[in-house]
Design a protein that fits this description.
mainly alpha; Na+/H+ antiporter like fold; 78% helix
């Protein structure tokens, strides 16, 4: 006999736990399948992005190289076209760690630089190497602070922040080229490549400290004199920590036999630790992690030159992939839409700042034994900007500053003007401006 409606309701209620269990299990299977499908799609999107970066980046880079232009321009164009502001074909999982990936690539080239940079060469250069660390950047910041208010209508403080964004030279553009010149024996009479490489690396520390100080002033925190003391303290602590780590690694390698490939990975791991230490001590003790990475390589070179040269060669091979990743992601970070806002005034500002920067470089080299060609080459080598501007150019806009759009626009414009200008200038003119070989009697 059929049960009443109440009975059927009660029967269903009594039977619910079993049905609920089966339904829940079925739903879990569907959820897991859906989640797995989404994960698979995410992995496929990431792999597709990497494939596009590799093929298009190397293709455009090789094409421009055939045209006697720097391959990095093709890599930057690849990033800009595939990036979120044009085609949007670079997966978000890659863009979300773009800053970290760019930093890893920068660590690779700075570690390689340290393994090739002999302290005796810098001592031989002397005063100009020290002045190049901060004088050209100071000239450029002063130029932007003076020129930006009448040209772009920003406040003096906004102009100072803009100057700090623009003033950093790009080690990613400069250092690989200086290493190639050192390997080829160019400019070795007066150690010009070593001087440029060291100055360009310290230059960034100085500029970023001032950028942070100016942002604090914009936020109402004011400017503190002790902020300037952070610059030499950050440099000294970075060099000391890096040198200590390099001596420790040299001691380890001398006592434990291992393949050079393992040594490459251990040095890379130590470099990551040094850069992480900078982040951990931020706000407490200023330390330059990137300078520590260079000092790590330099200390190992001093302790065991043959080993350092072998490892530097291996990092040269790693740089092939790291360079592609670095400049592609720099290109992806460049929002080309802001170029529409850049009028002649912004172009005039960037070019005017470069003239002041060149005057700063020449002031550093006044009274030295460098030839006119070597001085001109140094000024050209100090032009390119890329990595720092891509990293910090958007911070004022993200903070809601009124001049944020103008600062980001000028930063993008500076990358597109100076990275090609400096790279092409170095590649085309080094043979005309520098001499090959070394005069031991000099």
């Amino acid at each position: 006999m059929l049960r009443s409606g109440a009975g059927r309701k009660q029967w269903r209620s009594d039977a619910t736990p079993g049905f609920r269990g089966k339904a829940a299990a079925h739903q879990r299977r569907k959820t897991h399948a859906f989640t797995g499908l989404n994960q698979d799609k995410g992995e496929m999107a990431m792999l597709l992005s990497l494939a596009l970066i590799l093929f298009m980046g190397f293709a455009l880079g090789g094409l421009l190289q055939k045209m006697a232009l720097p391959p990095l321009l093709g890599m930057m164009v690849t990033g800009a076209v595939l990036g979120p502001h044009v085609l949007g074909l670079i997966d978000g999982s890659i863009l979300s760690i773009s800053t970290e990936l760019r930093q890893i690539a920068l660590i690779v080239i700075l570690l390689r630089a340290g393994l090739s940079l002999d302290v005796k060469d810098l001592r031989r250069v002397g005063r100009p190497a020290v002045l190049l660390c901060f004088v050209p950047a100071t000239f450029e910041m002063l130029a932007v602070t003076l020129l930006a208010p009448p040209l772009l209508g920003v406040t003096r403080l906004d102009a100072a922040i803009m100057g700090a964004v623009l003033a950093a030279v790009s080690p990613a553009v400069v250092v690989p080229r200086m290493l190639r010149l050192m390997e080829g024996g160019w400019g070795q009479k007066h150690r010009v490549p070593q001087m440029v490489m060291a100055g360009a690396s310290v230059d960034d520390v100085y500029v970023i400290v001032l950028f942070t100080a100016f942002l604090g002033m914009a936020g109402g925190e004011g400017f503190h004199a002790e902020t300037l003391l952070m610059v030499p303290l950050s440099i000294v602590l970075g060099l000391v920590l890096g040198a200590g780590a390099g001596l420790g690694m040299a001691w380890l390698f001398a006592r434990i036999h291992m393949r050079d490939t393992v040594k490459v990975l251990l040095l890379l791991g130590m470099s990551f630790l040094l850069v992480s230490l900078e982040a951990a001590l931020k706000g407490t003790v200023p330390v330059s992690g990137l300078l520590a990475v260079m000092a790590l390589g330099g200390a190992l070179l001093r302790q065991n030159a043959p080993l350092a040269k072998r490892i530097a060669g291996k990092y040269g091979k790693v740089w092939v992939a790291a360079e592609l990743l670095l400049f592609t992601l720099v290109g992806a970070a460049v929002d080309v839409r802001y170029l529409g806002m850049a009028g002649l005034a912004a172009v005039a500002l960037v070019l005017g700042a470069l003239l002041f920067r060149t005057a700063g470089v020449l002031a550093c080299l006044a009274g030295t034994r460098l030839t006119r060609g070597e001085r001109a080459f140094t000024a050209i080598a100090y032009l390119p900007k890329a990595t720092v501007q891509a990293a910090i150019g958007g911070i004022p806009l993200a903070m809601g500053m009124a001049a944020g759009n103008a600062i980001l626009t000028v930063a993008v414009l500076a990358i597109l003007i100076t990275a090609p200008l400096g790279a092409i200038g170095i590649d085309r003119l080094y043979a005309r401006l520098l001499t090959r070989g070394e005069d031991r009697g000099a």
